[in-house]
Structure formats: structure tokens, C-alpha cells
Design brief:
The protein is mostly helical. The protein has helices at 4-27, 37-56, 69-97, 99-123, 129-153, 159-181, 193-211, 221-248, 252-273, 280-322, 331-356, 358-361, 369-395, 399-443, 446-449, 458-476, 487-516.
Length: 517
Amino acid sequence: MEVGLGWLGVGVGVIGSVVMYLLAVSAGSDVEQGDGRRAWMASGVVLILTLIFWGISSQKNAPFSMGQTLGLGFLIGGVTGAVAGLVAMKLEPAAIASARAASLGAECMAFLGLLGASLAYVLFHGYPQEALIGFSIGAAMAGIIHHLLRSARSSYPGGLIAIWTFFSVTTAASVVLAIYHFDNDTLRAWWPLPILMAATVCIASYIGTETGSWGRLRERPGAGYVLSLIVGAVITIGLAAIYSARVVESWQLLEVTAVGIGITALIAWLAASNREDADIPAGVESAAGAVLLVVAGAVVAFKLWTGLGIGIGLIAGWTALLTAVGNRGSLNLTRMLGSALSLGLAIVLFRVFIETYRPELGTTDLRIHYTFIGALLGAVLPFIFATSLIRLRSITRSDAGALLGVLLLGLFAAALPIVLFAIWEIKAVLGLVFGLIAAEAFLMMGPVTAPTDARDDTPWVVGLLVIGAQLVAVQFVRPLIDWGATRGTKIWILAGALLVGLLWLGVTGLMARRRAR
């Protein structure tokens, strides 16, 4: 079963992604295809960077494991990300024009994400942690490059590639938590349990989408979505009950699945009840309620089944988003659900970080000074990412300029945990990972207070940068654990980081003001 469930994920991912793609293309067959030049450019950059990293990872020294499973996992993530970007490019025009095609496109991306995460697991199932983290880093890199480049220079918002990235990383990170949870060789058969639940959610969401698209329901998106969510939730929870009784022999699987779906259903209700033209206080209240629900869901799931419970609950919660993408009645619905699932993934990666560095962290908590500093930086920097994205979109006038801005911003996000460790060590990085989660919670309030705009995808993009920084913290801090820098070296590193940050803000701000004139 240890390998069988992994191959099940691969098979379901292949068949599901092909079927969803064909159905989505058929549903939007009358739609004119857009210019795919930028998608091919993004995929080319992703492949080049993937091959470079893979070549570097051929060495056997840390942070590259013996057998180079980290680099091979990154290779899988980068290649599948490049393919997913091209598939999304084909689906996005139809998704914009057709509600059913939008839902099918989102489900195609989820099946592709299941395929990539499952492949990284089955190829290295003996010790898959390194490969899964490598896959997640590669997927995050691909998502960041595709989404940022295309949303900055294209008429399509690029939400499908973000769905692929978040679902891929959620599945892979949850498998890592399952490995830490079932840390006995006699229990390793349950390591791919999150893959089984991800496959279940993908299939259930598709059935729910088709049910909600019958007949006159196509003309009533609200009622259609409610029916889609109910059908998808019933199938997911029902199968989780069967898995709990017959496979895992633990009702905790059913409990965390029900918690995940229940929490996201409540968030969907909050979003749908908040009108597009609602005033700012109403929007802030809805967003604050969604943040509290995500935190509450994480607390309950952790109490039920520790970090694994949070991961599986989050996977189950994707049922609400995958069935909501085609609902054109409320943009707030998909925005808030997307932000909530992004925030949930940040919490999952926080748990992965804790489990990975548990011996080094010891009794570390947020009262420690350097951890507090890291938390403050983590809470502030995503807002800088958001403003930088807005400025990049206003000042770039060429594909080359957009690509350069994307690469620099992604580099800043990746370097952040490394620089922070070099200055204040592991406790500060713990605070950073925590602070990034807090910032995403506050950023969830942004879209509902801003004017309605289908291309207002800043929370998605910031979410990609956040998980990229978190994944770097998980994997690339360990090689520096024993690095002892002098006080003078740390001061120089801090000064250099501040100088780079000030130059970035100064230059982009000056260019934005000149463009505004």
C-alpha cells in the first residue's frame, strides 16, 4: 500500500488531467485563443533554471542528499510546472468566457498537481522527504515565474497556474507531515494517505461541478455552486468514512476531513454573503472572520491529528474552491477561498519547518528576542512584496523588464530566510516563517476592500512568494546550522541586506512616479 497509493495518485492524475483538459477545451471551443508567447517564455525560463539547479545538485554535499533526491525532486517540480503553465495558457481563454470551462480548467490543474506530487513520492518512496521538498520548491519557482510574468504583461490573470502550485505543494507538504506522523516502519503504509485524499477531492469536485451545471442551474450560479459543494462534500466525507473504517482504521481521518470541508464551507458562505459593492467595514469583517476560521480549523485539526490533521483538512477544503471557480456570481468567493487556502498552506509549511528542525529549536517560542524580530520581518515583508508587484505592473513596458522584475522579486523572497539566519540564526527564521503566515492573514483583507477587478490577483502572487520563502527556510537553512559568523560579519551582512532593500524600494518608487507623470 505504501507504493500502491502513490501509483494510484499518478494514475488518477494522468487520466483526470487529460479528461478535464479535453472537456474544458470542448466547453470553450468557440473562444479565440490568446497569445501564448509569454507562456512559452516563462516555461523556457523555468526549464533553464530547473536544469541549472539539477546540475548543481549532482554534488553529494548538503543541502543535496546522497543520491541527489532533492535535485531530482526539483527537476520533477520544474518540468511539471513548465508543462502546467503551457496547459493553463491553453485553458485560460475558455475559462474566462465559460463558467463550466473555468471549473474544469481548475480541476485539470488540481489533477496535474496530484500527478506531480505523487510522482515525486513513488520514485523516492524509501526516503521521500527530500524529493518532496525539492518538488515543492520547483513547483513554487514555476508558479512564481509563470504567474508573475504573465499577470504583469498579459490580459489573463493566470489563476490556473496558481491553483496548480498551491494544490501541488499542499499535497507534497502533507505527505511530509504524514511521514513525520507515522514515524515507525510498521506504519509507513500510511505515508501516501494525503495522496489518496487529494485524488478523492479531485474526483469529488468534478462530480460536484457537473451536477451543479445541469440544466437551468447554469443560469443560477449561486444555486449551482451550493449544489456542487454539497455533492462534492458528501462524496469526500463519505469516502473518508470508508477509508477510516476499512483502510486506516482510525476515525481521525474522517474528523479532520469534515473539519476542513466545514471550515471552507463557512468561509464560502461569508464571501458569498458579502456583496461586491459592500462597504469597507463589511468587507473587513468578512475577511477577519475568514482568517479566524482558518486559524480555528488549524487548531481543531491539530488537536485531532497533529500536523497531519492540518494537511489533510486543508486538502479536503479544496473541494470548496475547485467547485467555486466557475461561479461568476461572486468574485469575492474565489478570492477569499483562494486566500484562505493559501494561508492554510503557510500554516502547513510552518508545521513542516517545526518538524524538520525540532532538535535544533528545543523549547524555542515567540518570547525569544530574535524570534520576535523574525516574526516582525515576516509580518511586514509580504506587504512590501505586494507593493512591489503593483509598481512592477505600472513601470514595466517590455517582456524583458517584466521578467527581470519577476526574477529579482523571487530572488529576494528566496534569499530572505538565508540572510536572516546568517544574522540571527535559527530562532529568527522560526519567527520569519510564523510572521509570513500572519502577513497572509492580513493580506486576505485586501481584495474585499479594493474595487472589484478580475485581475486583482495580488494575494495569490504574494502567497506564491511566501511559500517560496518558507520552502527555502525548510531546506536550505540546515547546511548553515554550524556556521559561526563573527559579530563584524553579521553587521556587514545586515548592512548589505538593508542597502539592497532600500535600493529596490527607491528605484522602483522613482520609476513608478515617472510613469505616473
